[in-house]
Structures are given as structure tokens and as C-alpha cells.
Design goal:
This protein has 4 helices and no strands. It is mainly alpha-helical.
Length: 91
């Protein structure tokens, strides 16, 4: 059985709680799941910087916002974080 990169990313997230970068090679994800490498050995996920920015914005403005979620961007996929970041940037 062969898993797609998307499936591997999901498994890494579900089992290890790590949002891997879009350019993380399949081999590195497999090695991470096999505990052959650590998270520090992977390329950084640039979307995590945006996650932190959105979380800070939500925390600083929570009294003025009506959110459809709890504001924990690490619970959402990269695409959703990019969407929220774009919307909040427009405000």
C-alpha cells in the first residue's frame, strides 16, 4: 500500500501533532513517523508563522470578534489558516 503525500501529512498531524511544511519530502515524513528523525530535522512550515500571527490577533481582539471556531489555528489545515489570515488582514 502506498500513501499519498497528503495522507502522510495528515497522519503526521494526527499522530504527532506536527504540521509539516508543504515541501517536506515523503521520505522525511516516513522517517519522522518511524522516529528516525526529529521535528527539528524537517524544513520549517512557513504557514506556522501566519498561524501564530492570527492567534495573536484573535487573542488581542477577542472582545471585538465573532469567530466560527475557538481560535486555535493549529487545529486547522494550512489552507484554512491562509484564508483566515487573508480575511483578518483585510479588516
Amino acid at each position: 500500500m502506498h500513501l499519498t503525500e497528503r495522507e502522510l501529512r495528515h497522519i503526521v498531524w494526527e499522530q504527532l501533532g506536527v504540521r509539516v511544511a508543504p515541501n517536506t519530502p515523503e521520505r522525511q515524513m516516513l522517517d519522522l513517523l518511524s522516529y528516525k528523525v526529529s521535528v527539528r530535522d524537517l524544513p520549517p512550515n512557513p504557514v506556522n508563522l501566519l498561524r501564530d500571527e492570527v492567534v495573536r490577533y484573535i487573542r488581542d481582539n477577542q472582545n471585538r470578534l465573532s469567530l466560527p471556531c475557538d481560535g486555535d489555528c493549529y487545529q486547522h489545515p494550512d489552507g484554512m489558516v491562509l484564508h483566515c489570515h487573508t480575511i483578518l488582514k483585510e479588516e
